[in-house]
Amino acid sequence: MKRLILASSSPRRIEILKNLGLEFEVIPSNFEESLVDDQPQRLVCKLAESKAKDVISKAPSDSIIIAADTVVVKDKRIFGKPKSQNEAYEMLRELSGSSHKVVTGICIVDNINELEVADYEETTVYFKELSDDEIWNYIKTGEPIDKAGAYGIQSLGGLFVKKIDGCYFNVMGLPVYKLYTMMGELGINILTEVVKNGK
Ligand SMILES: Cc1cn([C@H]2C[C@H](O)[C@@H](COP(=O)(O)OP(=O)(O)OP(=O)(O)O)O2)c(=O)[nH]c1=O
Fold it and tell me: Active-site residues (predicted)?
C-alpha cells in the first residue's frame, strides 16, 4: 500500500489505528476548526475534509490521508470541545439524564490517484442523571477539556454512560467499521494490508 497518514493529533485516533496493526505516520493538521451553523453531518464531513486537505502539501506524494472530526449533538445544538471549565459544566448539564448523538466525519484522500471519499457515522449515547458534584469532580480530573461534548467514554466518562446504540469507536473519534468500508471504496483492504505486513 501507499504511505498511510493520519491527519490527527488526537491520542484516541492514533491508539485506535495502532490497535488495528496498521503502519502509519501522524501529520496533524493545523486547520482552525470552527462550528459554523450547519447540519452536523455535513459539518463533520466538511471539517474532516479541510483537515485532510491541509495535510496534503505536507505529506509524501504517494500518500493515503485519513482525517476525522467528532461532535456531540443534543436537541439540534452542536457541542465541540469545551473552551473552559464552565462551558464543560454547561455541556455535561445538558447531557445529564438523557440521550444525545455523537457524529464523526471521516475523509480519506488518495493523493496519487486524486480520489477522495467523505462520510459520517452516528452513535446514540444514553447518560445517567448527573449531580453537580459528579460534574465538578469529573471536570477537576481534566478529562473533559480536549473532548467533544466534554466527556471521554473510554475513560472516567464511561461511568456516566448507561448504554449506546451504534459504534463505540465512533464515540472515541474514529469508527473502524466505517473506516474499513471507506478504505474499501478506494480499493484498499485494511485486513489484507495488516496480514501482508505480518501483524
Ligand atoms: C465524545 C467523545 C469525544 N472524544 C474526543 C475524540 C476527539 O479527539 C475529540 C473531538 O475533537 P476533534 O476536533 O474531532 O479532534 P481533535 O481536535 O482531538 O484532533 P484532530 O483535529 O487533530 O484530529 O473528542 C473522546 O475521546 N471520547 C468521547 O467519548
Answer: 69 (proton acceptor)
Q: Give per-residue pLDDT as tens, 40-50.
A: 999 999 999 99
pLDDT tens-digit readout, 108-165: 999 888 899 999 999 999 999 999 999 999 999 999 999 999 999 999 999 999 999 9
Which residues face 126 on adjacent strands? 99, 163
Mutate which of 12, 16, 91, 138 to test ligand 1's pocket (most atoms within 8 Å of Cβ)? 12
Are the C-beta atoms of residues 40 and 71 closer than 8 Å to each other?
yes
- Single pTM value for the model: 0.96
Radius of gyration of the chain (CA): 17
Give the active site residue among 69, 119, 133, 165.
69
- Structural domains of the chain, with CATH: 3-196 (3.90.950.10)
Amino acid at 29: S
197 in Cβ contact with 3 (< 8 Å): no
Q: How far, in Å, from the CA of 189 to the mean position of ligand 1?
A: 25
Q: Dihedral angle at the C-alpha atoms of 126, 129, 134, 136, nearest 10 degrees?
A: 80
**What is the ipTM, given to two decimal places?**
0.94
